[in-house]
Specification:
single chain, mainly alpha, two-stranded antiparallel sheet, 75% helix, 2% strand, elongated
């Protein structure tokens, strides 16, 4: 068996699937997440959620989507890189949301409580979004890192036990 092909035609390069390629990019993943979350939030608050249960369900869906996209991005990198990637993801995601929010305010579709948001509401909305997204993403990243470390230690212990059993 040859490890080095004689002709380059023997090499098969597989391109990652579209979502995997997207998840490798910090900027693209955060921007897509921010835009989709803000449009979803705006649509639900403007047209949808009429009851508390429905409103709570849409809120939970939004948080789960944010955490899914964060996890999908971070899963591509070692835990040591999460320390800067998670806060950067939060800042970029918030920036994308706030640019989307500006566009929605401009077209008159951004809710702010029970009324439409206006340009003077935007700075407080931006600070609130940055705080909630930042705290959510950083806490989730710390929890995720702890879970990964625990699972690694348990798996390492299981592998050592299997090696000892094989020796006996």
């Amino acid at each position: 068996m040859s490890f080095f092909p004689r002709q380059t035609i023997e090499w098969h390069i597989e391109e990652p699937r579209a979502f995997r390629r997207l998840s490798l990019s910090l900027v693209e993943m955060a921007l897509v997440t921010g835009v989709l979350l803000r449009v979803y939030r705006s649509y639900v608050l403007t047209h949808g959620a009429t009851g508390w249960l429905l409103f709570g369900g849409t809120l939970v869906f939004g948080v789960l989507f944010l955490l899914f996209m964060t996890t999908a991005h971070l899963a591509n990198f070692p835990i040591q890189r999460w320390a800067w990637r998670a806060p950067a993801f939060a800042v970029l995601e918030c920036a994308a949301e706030m640019v989307t929010s500006l566009l929605l305010i401009w077209v008159g579709r951004e809710p702010y409580g029970s009324v439409r948001a206006e340009m003077h509401d935007w700075p407080s909305m931006a600070m609130g979004t940055l705080a909630t997204r930042g705290i959510t993403i950083v806490v989730w990243t710390l929890l995720l890192a702890a879970i990964v470390q625990i699972v690694r230690r348990v798996m390492a212990g299981t592998i050592e036990e299997e090696k000892e059993e094989a020796r006996a």
